[in-house]
Amino acid sequence: MKDDTEAAAVVDTRGLIDAADRILRELIRTPKFKETLVILLNSIDPPSARRLVRTLFWQDPGLLLSLMGSLPSLINVISEALAEVANQMNTMPPPLLQDFLNQVVAGIDGAAAGEAAGGLVSMVLSLGISNKESVLRRGLSAMAEDFSRAYSDAASGARLDERLGAWMAGAAERAQDPESAVHGFVQAATRAVRENPAFVEHVLKPILEPVMGTSGAQRTSAGTKKPARDEG
Fold it and tell me: Could you give the residue ranges of the DSSP H alpha helices within the chain?
């Protein structure tokens, strides 16, 4: 009876991932499968990923278009999976979680991740999304609203403030080192801000005014005249 109820609950969401989940539930009970899976995972060769991407891009344009059409679904699968990973990891004791994440971080190729992030940022900046009528900008705005709402629901506000404060303190310390990546980023951001005064006026000022205490002074100088002195 329970199996029938579960089947009825997921009937509308069945697809490739659901099939993979049901198959994996059965296979994971088999020791031979787990041994084979470990062997396959140990055989992953990251440097070959670039060649694979070039093959997908240039060998068959039709296949590339099909993959691009499926990209939103693939990204949604990854997002759903990462969200559940985060939920499950939040149940782990902090010392165990820290050790686990340290093993993950130690194995990540920082240079490749940095190159990927920089390339994606350059691509996005080249798209001209500053145009308010851009179709891509409207789509990104809608996605950003959903992202912000879900992020706020998932991250506790008080804990987030504390963690952001600690991160900012660490970033400020690293920014003082001319050899650090943070220092390089600050210098690049400074040059970009200098060339975009509108960004300073409409983005940075509203953020910094409550912290710097400049809003009152600006209102006094811009919109309120000081009372004239009594003469004589």
Answer: 2-9, 16-27, 31-42, 49-58, 61-89, 94-106, 110-125, 135-154, 157-175, 181-194, 197-199, 205-212, 215-223
Separation of alpha carbons 154 and 211, rounded Å: 26
Domain total for the chain?
Answer: 1
The answer to whether residue 118 is domain-embedded is no
User: Each residue of 99-137: pLDDT tens digit?
Assistant: 988 988 888 898 998 899 888 888 877 877 777 777 777
pTM over 0.70? The answer is no
- Domain interval for residue 175: 168-217
3-state secondary structure of 134: coil
At which residue do the structure tokens 């990462």 appear?
A: 82
In angstroms and rounded to an integer, the radius of gyration of the C-alpha atoms of the chain is: 26
Does 177 score more than 50 pLDDT? yes
Give me the count of residues in the chain: 232
Residue 173 lies in a domain: yes
The tokens for 104 are 């993950």
